[in-house]
Amino acid sequence: MTDSFSLAGRVAVVTGAAGLLGKRHCQALASAGARVVAADLDEEASRGVAGELGVEALGHGLDVTAPDSVVALRDAVLARFERLDVLVNNAAVNEKVEAPESGADVLRFENYPLDLWERSLKVNLTGVFLCSQVLGSEMARRGSGSIVNIASTYGMVAPDQALYRQADGSQTFFKSAAYPTTKGGVLAFTRFLAAYWGRAGVRVNALSPGGVENGQDPGFVARYAERTPLGCMARSTDYGGALVFLAGDASAYMTGANLVVDGGYTAW
Length: 268
Fold this sequence. Notes:
The chain is of the alpha/beta class. It has helices spanning about 20-30, 45-50, 65-80, 105, 115-140, 180-195, 220-225, 240-245; strands at about 10-15, 35-40, 55-60, 85-90, 145-150, 200-210, 260. It contains 8 helices and 7 strands; from the N terminus they run E-H-E-H-E-H-E-H-H-E-H-E-H-H-E. It has a 7-stranded parallel beta sheet, sandwiched between helices.
């Protein structure tokens, strides 16, 4: 079974590689033997991630919403490694309870600005479309590859706004409609692409993580833990095994699926 989980000799691209989970995705793939391409809008940060992996790796700037940028990434990967085996579509816009970019009034559905909605659509959906189209087409041309789209529990169930409510009933954060809508779209796109490229040897699956503990208010962490059968939020390292499984031969007969790793959050 060990060989089934090995990614030795393969080249894996991770978008949004400088983010909290993006870094962990890169580390997990590298630990399985892959040569990793860390791609992020912050090019300097992506190079830093690549430099810390301890394997042959490449850091590259990437705007997932710009076709020319995605094509440039593909060309750089092929020039350096002459192949492309795994694509992890991880880049996304997500309002974070620990570091909200907007106030509660802005995040309420009744007031949510059109520009923020369209920004999420462009990054979270169009970005996955473009990267899959440009990089996945190279896999299809070669006759093999694995695409892993990072979705979310919020692509399957609605946000529980009560998680963000303080003990006194006040609420300074709302999860907007944009993130769950786009992640639901990622799941639908995953199924489409799996069916479209199945005979071309390209497998396409989704990984839906639950919430990750990352310095949030203790009250929020406690409420989330109470809402979760395993009684805790995820650690940032809890998704590496699932990602390596989907990327490699251990999941060879799996496509169009959504692997949910959420501590049971969506079980009830």
